[in-house]
Amino acid sequence: MTPRRSIISEVFLILVAALWILPVLWSVYLAFRPLEETNKYGYVSWPRSLTLQNFRDAWTQGSVLHYFVNSLWITIPAVVLTLLLSSALAFVIARLRYRWTLPLLLVFTAGNLLPQQVFLAPLFKIYNSVGLPTWLADSGKLYDSTFGLVVINVAFQLGFCVFVLANFMKTVPASIQEAAIVDGAGIWTQYWRITLPLCRPALAAMATLLTIWIYNDFFWALALISTGDKYPITTALNDLKGQYAVDNNLLAAGALIVAAPTLVVYLVLQRHFIAGLTLGSTKE
Amino acid sequence: MVAIPLVVDLVFIWGPALATIVLSFTDATGAAPIHWVGTKNYHTLAEVDPSFWPAVRHNAIWLGVFILIATPLGMLFAVLLDRGLQGSRIYQSVIFLPVMLSLALIGIIWQVIYTTNGGLLNTLLGHGDGGGVDFLGDPSINLWAVLVEATWRQAGYVMILYLSGLKAVDLALKESAALDGANGWQTFRYVVFPVLRPVNVVILVVTVIESLRAFDLVYITNQGGIGLQLISAMITQQITGPGNRIGYGSALGVVLLLISLVPIVAFLVQQFRKEDES
After folding, report:
1. Where is the ABC transmembrane type-1 domain positioned along the sequence (chain A) (predicted)?
2. Contact with chain A for residue B169, Cβ under 8 A
3. More confident residue, B117 or B158
4. How many domains does chain A have?
């Protein structure tokens, strides 16, 4: 490539990156400015003073902590369950090369590609008719319960996870497993003690990806939870948006607080997240 | 432990997907007894419901923008980043940032840009003192305003997928093409692009699926109301709304199911072929 063309590419990328970061930086800028000042001088004006007050107000007015805890109760169990179940099935698919394992794998993957709304109607009926003991769900049924939300998140993410983990496990040399069998290892030992540790990179990538996806999920709680108090934080954004009313500074501060966990993952675990995304698309 | 995921998948995903078809021929609601109504629901959506055809049109526009703008943009970013220029990692991280944010959050971040009274965009357009363009409310433009938000995220998603594909292309292949006198564009068009066929199919599938799944952005903006009707939002409103019109919502669901089978089958064919080769 000629130096001149590489300069053009470089400049183009700088412009794109600047344009791309602008919306986020704008939110940050607004969030740190006092309302009186933006009211007086307009949003697009030089700052005269900066404040943390918007963050404090957004935190208390929106009961943000409460919704964060809700998100935690949904995300952690859902991620752990998804990884356990999908790795077990992936192990079987990868190890026992029966004729039906490929169709099985494909059915799983295809299910994960369906838009959620396609199967919402029967799901809504099921959720309303399946009863649960009250110690598990205070609504007495799957509908409007945190438990139900965990179940649907697990069900929906399983397909993709099985697909990725099965593909990854196929790359683990069969000789390792054969050696284990010779040493008298049972199926459980082969799965838990031998295969899973070898899959650590894939599991780390999946864990990161699932955490972000489930934390970011907006739709399931909206459709299957009727008590606003039980919403995870992402779905609660819809109500918070109304509560912060037309105060854009407060809205920006609230948005950044909700984005904070994602941004931490973005800064620390971005590599795993990207690995998870691309494992599904390029792994042979 | 192997049976659980199978059962869960059948009970909560594929079972309901098939049950949607059955329910679409009924008048099911939240409680009352269910009656067969034949194809009445389909007549209603095609001929009576004023939201249906706008929704189909909006979904089609969404797909068009993704295919013609967001996806090529993401590919372009990937190709440029793959050249390993200075600071590539930083640019990549920046463009990738929106992919990690939830769509609901993206809707809010853009709202403070689009806002009528003193928003960034309206001020830049010279309406800083009020009377600006109502980007998210005006039904003749709000779809395009939301599509800017969607593209902001989608381009980064495509970029990452494509970049991983590009990285997997054998360097020797590119070198030999260069030795044979191919220029940058020819190398990409005749050597790199064909090798990336599997990744291209994945990206196409992701593009179509994401445009059918579009929901969060329009919902956080105006609940999928005027100017922003989408099939997915209509289904949600019908089923979870006050009437719980499950039968009618199912008919809409079947429409969405039939459309989404196209990319899903394309993906499955691709995967089957890959398995056969290996």
Report:
1. 68-269
2. no
3. B158
4. 1
